[in-house]
Amino acid sequence: xxxxxxxxxxxxxxxxxxxxxxxxxxxxxxxxxxxxxxxxxxxxxxxxxxxxxxxxxxxxxxxxxxxxxxxxxxxxxxxxxxxxxxxxxxxxxxxxxxxxxxxxxxxxxxxxxxxxxxxxxxxxxxxxxxxxxxxxxxxxxxxxxxxxxxxxxxxxx
Length: 157
Prior knowledge:
- By secondary structure, the protein is of the alpha+beta class.
- The protein has helices at about 10-20, 75-90, 105-115, 125-135, and strands at about 1-5, 25-30, 30-35, 40-45, 50-60, 60-70, 95-100, 120-125, 150-155.
- The chain has a single domain (about 1-155), classed as 3-Layer(aba) Sandwich (Aminopeptidase).
- The strands form 2 sheets. It has a 7-stranded mixed β-sheet, sandwiched between helices. A two-stranded antiparallel sheet has the order 2-3.
- It contains 4 helices and 9 strands; from the N terminus they run E-H-E-E-E-E-E-H-E-H-E-H-E.
């Protein structure tokens, strides 16, 4: 197993991962529209198979995680990827890292808060606005919870 930086050499793996698991890499959130397969980030690989990846953007001394995926939950892949991102961002002089998740994603809220992230803001009806751009965003999410809002979490590095 290894964690490698996303590069031109492995970009096709990233594109394939998003096609297979998300039917594309477009991410529409309150901070903008992103194409995750073109962003900086890291891949977690085992036996030449991508089991997880994280993407981010840097804005001066702040960064935003755009996507974090692990197809093998409970193995620590997400934790390893986030630790790598935080370590790398600190080397770049980034002081604050943020991300958004949706109101139905209780697992993500637990995951990030356990790792020192704090809720900074709730963007009411942000997902409704995102659906105007990307109509494939589902109405109902995890545990039958209607997906309406985004929750921004932040952590000082």
